[in-house]
Amino acid sequence: LLSVSCLGDCQLHTSCGIQKCTTDFVSFTSHLNTALEDFDLEFCKALRAYSVCTYRNSKVCRGNLVYHSAVLGIGDLMTQRNCTKDGPTSSTSPEMTHDPCNYSGHTEVREHRGGEKTPPPTYLFCGLFGDPHLRTFKDHFQTCKVEGAWPLIDNNYLSVQVTNVPVVPGSSATATKKITIIFKSYQDCTDQKVYQAMTDDLPAAFVDGTTGGGDGNTRSLHIVEKVSGKYIEMHARYIGTTVYIRQLGHYLTLAIRMPQELVMAYEESQDLQLCLNGCPSSERIDQSGHLPLPVMGKLLPWGAAAHPVSGYTLETATTKCHEKMLVKDIYFYSCVFDLLTTGDANFTAAAHSAMQDVEALHPSKEHWHIFPRNGGGSVYRDRKFFVSLGFLCLIFVAYL
């Protein structure tokens, strides 16, 4: 908006630094996106820096038309954007310009310093839902017992711990009743913030009663309540991390997206992280990817009519899950497993929401769905054969 071409008299004003002021302003604003919530804040900072630069050159640029046009343009833009004249300004060195509380800005710094553009940061996804089913940062899919408290994530920036309890007597399946998240203090962006959710207590605030961390204007860390008591989102802008927590029925689900370089920033003593390395083999319900369903003599007893105590048969559970999930991927099969194990229809909603969270947070669309090795149809190809053997397996294979 403020770029102005020379009118032939540029050489007469070689001491005027207006061109440098304008170039700096372009550098400050070229990466900004009007769709971002902090656009006005950053744009106003750049305008104030531009104004300071023109003021410093006011004497040597006194007769320069380009200079006077820039001054007028700055005033107009500050009025349009409701910018105050007093306030923070962008750095006077564009190559060092970045917001330390905006992880996406870290890439800008690397680009300026190196002189070459660096690829955008790589993000990873982890999710936990149901009985419980775990999708790791490596896109491995597992079903685990992990009763009690277990760390999902434990690195230099973030700690996430879940507490799981048995869902049905006689079954090794568990579900999540409590989630504790610690956002560790980081520069001037945020003090340490602790969040805790439990069944029937999904607050929209940290344990200290605040809803954010750091300067309230920058919103480097904040909680957004989407559905009161049922669904919250946590946005940690300074570490490029987003967390979704839901309550469905009596249990909680969690989904998180985090930059790979931060996921890998941990000490050797912090290697027990379910999201990073999966569940220990002793805690796996599935055996090498094969997940047994509740059948007589296995996970749960069957009734006289050879139906699971859940009240669902394989056919009715399949039909119920198919109502919400048309694609027969691992989320669909997890839904069937949970219904046959618990009889709780809320697990259908949990599997469906978990898939929605994948679509919202997982960075690679081609990896959203993970399918059984032989395709959806072959898993249930001959139910009578499997039941006669006393077990049924669902084959889950995660893409590397």
Please characterize this protein's 3D structure.
The chain is α+β, with helices and mostly antiparallel strands. It has 2 domains: 17-81; 123-293 and 310-367, 3-Layer(aba) Sandwich (Protein Transport Mog1p, Chain A). Helix content is 29%, strand content 21%. It is built from 11 helices and 14 strands. It has helices at 18-29, 39-56, 65-80, 103-114, 260-263, 274-277, 314-324, 330-342, 346-361, 376-379, 383-389, and strands spanning 123-129, 133-135, 141-143, 148-154, 158-166, 174-183, 193-198, 212-213, 221-227, 231-236, 241-248, 251-259, 290-292, 393-395. The protein has an 8-stranded antiparallel β-sheet with strand order 3-2-1-12-11-10-9-8. Strands 4-5-6-7 form a 4-stranded antiparallel β-sheet. The chain has a two-stranded antiparallel ribbon with strand order 13-14. A hairpin with a 7-residue loop joins strand 8 (212-213) and strand 9 (221-227). Helix 1 (18-29) runs antiparallel to helix 2, helix 7 crosses helix 8 and helix 8 (330-342) packs antiparallel against helix 9 (346-361). The radius of gyration is 28 Å and the shape is elongated. It starts with 17 loop residues before the first helix and ends in a 5-residue tail after the last strand. Mean pLDDT is 79; it is low at 1-14, 108-115, 295-308 and 375-400.
Write the layout of secondary structure elements.
Elements: H1 18-29, H2 39-56, H3 65-80, H4 103-114, E1 123-129, E2 133-135, E3 141-143, E4 148-154, E5 158-166, E6 174-183, E7 193-198, E8 212-213, E9 221-227, E10 231-236, E11 241-248, E12 251-259, H5 260-263, H6 274-277, E13 290-292, H7 314-324, H8 330-342, H9 346-361, H10 376-379, H11 383-389, E14 393-395
Antiparallel strand pairs: 1-2, 1-12, 2-3, 4-5, 5-6, 6-7, 8-9, 9-10, 10-11, 11-12, 13-14
